[in-house]
Amino acid sequence: MTETNAIVAHAVNGLTNREVQVLLLLADGLSSREVAAKLAISFKTATSHRNNILIKLGVHDTVLAVRWAIRNGLVAA
I need a surface site. Which of 8, 11, 37, 53 has the fewest CB within 10 A? Predict the structure, then answer.
């Protein structure tokens, strides 16, 4: 992901830079526990970020959030 893509995601959907980081890790197949460990945050915080991403993107599960990320150029298909 480039800095420009993160800025676009933030501008279009209100995602924070941290939420973009979490979304990218989820797209890599990491679980919320693995995301928490990778980013040195609590599991609860990682889960909160994931839930906020779903709300902001208007989707109901992580798979759809990852599909959004692919369609919007945040991750390669």
Answer: 11
